[in-house]
Each structure stands twice: as C-alpha cells, then as structure tokens.
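Journal club prep — side note

Before the paper discussion, L.F. wants everyone to see what a predicted structure for a comparable chain looks like in token form. Sequence:
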Amino acid sequence: MMRNRWSFFQIMGTLVLLVIMLLCEVCLGGVQFVGKVYPGSIKGAQMNWVDKDGKFLASSSGKFTFGFATTADDITKFLVVIVHVKSNTLIWTANRAVPIANTDKFEFDEKGNVVLNKGETVVWSTNTSGKGVSSMELQDNGNLVLLGKDNTTIIWQSFNYPTNTLLPGQNFTEGMKLVSDPSPNNLTYSLEFNSGDVKLYAGFKTPQPYWSTQSDNRMIINQNGGVVALATLAEKSWRFYDKSRVFLRQFIFVDLSGNNGTWVAVLGSNGLITFFDLEAGGSNSPSQATIPQGSCNTPETCDPYSICTGNNKCNCPSVLPCKPGFDSACSDKSITLMKGDDGLNYVALQFLKPFSKTNLEGCQKSCNGNCSCLAMFFHLSSGNCFLLDDIGSFQKPSTDSGYVSYIKISSDGRGSSNGGGGSSNKHTIVTVIIVIVTLLVISCLLFVGIRCYRRKPNVPDEGATTSSGPSDCNSDAYLSAVRLSGPR
C-alpha cells in the first residue's frame, strides 16, 4: 500500500515539474520586450509569440519591431526580421536564404551570442559569444545592436549587414553591399562599395556593372577631388563622404521642402534603387527619382536578347528569333555568330573593360574561340572588343551607338528548349492532333456508310411487305458518327 502511494506521489511530482518547466518556457518565450534585453532572456520559436504577430522585441517608441515573419511565397516558412510598424515594411532579414519552421528556435544566450537554429543546425548567428555582450537593443532608427558592458560600445549591429534596404543614418562603407530579391528570371542585383565608388551589378556568372555614382550626371558636387569612403541617407539626399567625413557629393532624390520623413533606399528585384518614405506608407509613396534614371538602363528591362527602346518598349530583334540563345555555348551543338540589329547598345559596356583592342575579324575570332562567349560587341571607331558570357536586353538608342553586335546561335537555327522555337513547336503539335482527329472521323463515316450500303435491303416486289425495323443507317453508331462530323 505504501509503495503504491509513493509511486503515485512520484508520478504527480514529475507531472507538476513538467508543467512548471512548460510554463517557464512559455513565459520566457511569450513576452514582447521593449527597447533592451539581456543575455539569456530570449529563447523560443515563432509559435511562442503568435499573439504578438511573431515579434519579441520592439524599439522604445514602438516604431520598429524584431521577430518572426512569414516568407512572401509560403506562410509555413519564417524569417527573422526587423519591421517598420506603421508601413509594415521589412527592412532587414537575418536568415534570408534559409527560411525556418514555426518550431525552430531563436535564442539570445547567456554568453552573449544570438543564434537561430533550424532543427539542430545553426542557420544564422552574430558570433559574439564571449565578446563581452551585456545587452541587445532595437534602436528607434531600426538598428539592432549588441552592446558592451559600458552600454555604449557596439560589438555587433545590423547596420553593418544590410539586406536590400538602407536606412537614414546607416553608413554604407567599403566592402558592404545590398542584394535584391531574385527577379522573375532568377537574377539578383547588388549595390557594392568598391575602390572608392558605389556601383550596381547584375548577378550573372560574371557580374555586370550597369550604374556607378561617377556616371550619374544628377550628382551634385560639393567638393571636387577626394575618394568616397562612405555614403549615408540624410535630409532627403544620399550623401557621399571621404574617410575624413568631408562632404564630397550628393544625390537629391526628392524635393527638399516639407517634412523630412523617414526615407529609405531599396534595391528592387527589377534592378532599380527606389526611395520610399516609411512614414507616408513605405512602397506606396516612392519618389520619382530612381537609380539608374531613364528607360532601358537595367539589364532586364526586357527579356534577354529583346531590344528595349524609349519608354521601356520591348521588341524582338529583326534578324533573330526573340530568344535565339541556347543552354550552353560550350555544348556539342554546332554554333555560329549571327549579326545583330544595327546600332544596338548594351547597358554594361560603358562600365566594362574591353577584352581586347583589335579589328572586327579579330573580335569575331576571339568570341568563336571562347565557348563561354554568348555575345560580342565591337566598337568601330575605337577597336574595343567586348565578350559577354551572359546577356540581358539590348538597348536601341536614338543615335547610332557605334557598336556592331554578334550573337551565338545554333547552326540549325534552333534555340534552346525555352527559346522562341517553343511556341512554334506547340502550334505544330496542335496542328498534327487536329489532322489526325479529322482523318479518324472521316474514316469512321466512310466505314459506316459502306456498311450501310452493303446491307441495304433489295427493293421489294410490288405488294410485298416491307420490314418496319430500323436499318443500320439509323443506328446509334451511325448517328453518332454524323454528329462527330459537325454541321455541313
């Protein structure tokens, strides 16, 4: 009897302990903190903060929140993000390339490290364990920081690891870059700070630049000379400084009159940098100024190999199919260089170094001898030869570009499986099916007609009794065949 009582109390004690542990975890995970938190204070999964829309930390004013958010294309997968609350704009992401489930855990551990796990695998971390982190704070400017013991020294900050957005006061410095979300063609764009210049690149196998601060005539020069060392958004302009913080130039993206707002720069999946005022609704309130300016100035304004003309109008080449390319120029297919339309240009050419300086024949020979070369441009007056291993849309300027262009295509005139021939193949298949069905219907009608004729009864003698039963020509099979043949 005593043994049974002791077993009962053991079971009850274990259950109470489990309930207490569960409650502790729920309490630890379910609270939304404000401003600053301390090592060991946060551990939980998205499901712990469902009633807080997945957000476990808010800035002091509540302007920004930090926590979980669903991905754009799958509500069962989650990112850890910083969000501007009023506009519901995502401004920073920790695990952009590796979404997690609602049971995967985020932790600010007792050693000062911030970790995001997917199952048992670490998918993102600040790598600050043992570096003297005393607190984590989401500041009112949208910057997530890990502070040292003096509460002022920044050991780690999200401003140093931007995704596709720059915020006011965020320094963009040498070695940093923004990366866009993928385009419909799965191409990403990047804004990079290298060698004293800020440039935009298309993420082909060999990245292709298509804009730089030095090429934009809208830049207002404040002081000539000097090498740009950092850029920052301030007072409705994008400002560029040297390493001594001397103000060199600026790009004004909106009228300076009126309230300043909270203007951010976003690199979109279309390759354009657009400026938005978060306080006025984020992406619903873009400035008219974009980078780059004008039409046809990004590699994917139109589909690859298409020709972009004024106001971003897209046309197929007149001498080639719309998509003459193929899967690989290094395949076993027989290939040839086909001349492109006259006067074409390509947005990256003004930023690329020429492959060589030669004549047209030499440039053609270089492209033919390089299996990775998909297209070549030769500048007639300078002799500059450009070889490209990827190609976006061509430009058709109002004045002759001075370039002669050639594109590699297969010698049999057929493109890739996803090229312009795909539509023709579909039409051919449909035509063949229609012909076969028509022949089958005609054959059926002939068969039934011949059968009716052969089985037609002889004309009876005068006065003879005629059968009133239905003939084969009135049968269901015959009537169905007639219906199949359609109206006459």
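L.F.'s comment for the group: The two ends are 98 Å apart (CA to CA). Keep this in mind when we get to the figures.
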